[in-house]
Write a structure and sequence with these properties.
The chain is α+β, with helices and mostly antiparallel strands. It has two domains: about 1-50 and about 125-250, Alpha-Beta Complex (tt1808, chain A), CATH 3.90.1570; about 55-115, no CATH class. The chain has seven helices and ten strands. The strands form three sheets. The chain has a six-stranded mixed β-sheet, with helices on both faces. The chain has a two-stranded antiparallel sheet with strand order 2-3.
């Protein structure tokens, strides 16, 4: 109980306060109610995407889109990719997120219409829905896990935070939690952009499936070299400001093909 209190009071709560300062709506999934009018906007504990928020975003960002096409785009985004290699599944969703869903339909005049359906507006941050949700429960096929904080843009879980108390090492968040989550709730990582691990004074940022040795410090907040008072502040301001996050997701997520897959 002491460690949990320390983790929440000293690390997670200040992080949520900072995210609120950066324009995120902060929610708590600890006593979540499900449904379109529920706490977060998902239908069940198994949903990793907040489907009602994503559906609303598709309609909002693509005016005039037929309802059936909007549903088709939503279905494509959230479809089950568990049979795929995890990294390839993550790449497929990232490309869909970045490039949009290419839809076609026939209008009332009988003309063929071709349009790219957007899931995020990368040019206008305020057109998107920004939610930082703590203590979100997620059910995998066999196990349930409670994440510390997830950042959702239009209902899409792009950033996962895992916190440890200041008395624990940051690597413990990787070894004890992140590796376990990848096995127990793999669907959470299909749309993920990156992961932040911190014990307050230290913070490490890494790609979705990066091994521990590829997690690193986020050195500065901006191009002027400004830093936060502690490493976690630098990491949050440098990666999770609305402009910064959109820029990272659109322009700086890369995948490397190696011989043998």
């Amino acid at each position: 109980m002491v460690a949990q209190f320390g983790e929440s009071a000293v690390v997670e709560n200040p992080a949520l306060d900072l995210l609120a300062e950066l324009g995120w709506t902060v929610g708590n999934g600890g006593a979540e109610e499900f449904g379109s009018a529920g706490t977060l906007g998902r239908d069940s504990i198994a949903d990793v995407v907040l489907v009602h928020r994503l559906r609303d975003a598709i309609v909002r960002l693509n005016p005039g889109l037929p309802a059936l096409v909007a549903q088709e785009a939503l279905d494509e985004f959230v479809k089950d990719r568990s049979a795929m290699d995890p990294v390839r599944a993550n790449k497929a969703v990232h490309e869909l997120l970045r490039d949009g869903y290419r839809a076609s339909w026939r209008n009332d005049d009988g003309d063929d219409v071709y349009e790219t359906v957007r899931f995020i507006d990368f040019a206008h941050a305020d057109a998107n829905d920004w939610l930082a949700a703590s203590q979100v429960r997620i059910a995998g096929e066999l196990h349930k896990r409670r994440s510390d904080t997830i950042l959702y843009v239009n209902g899409i879980p792009l950033v996962l935070f895992e916190f440890k108390s200041p008395s624990e090492s940051v690597q413990a968040a990787y070894d004890k939690n992140l590796c376990d989550y990848r096995d127990a709730i793999p669907a959470l990582f299909v749309p993920n952009g990156f992961v932040v691990l911190s014990n307050g004074s230290e913070a490490k940022v890494g790609a979705t499936y990066a091994p521990w040795e590829y997690f690193g410090d986020w050195k500065v907040i901006d191009a002027d070299g400004n830093r936060g008072k502690v490493a976690l502040e630098t990491a949050i301001r440098g990666t999770c400001g609305q402009y910064e996050l959109l820029d990272l997701i659109e322009n700086f997520v890369a995948y490397m093909e190696r011989p043998g897959g």
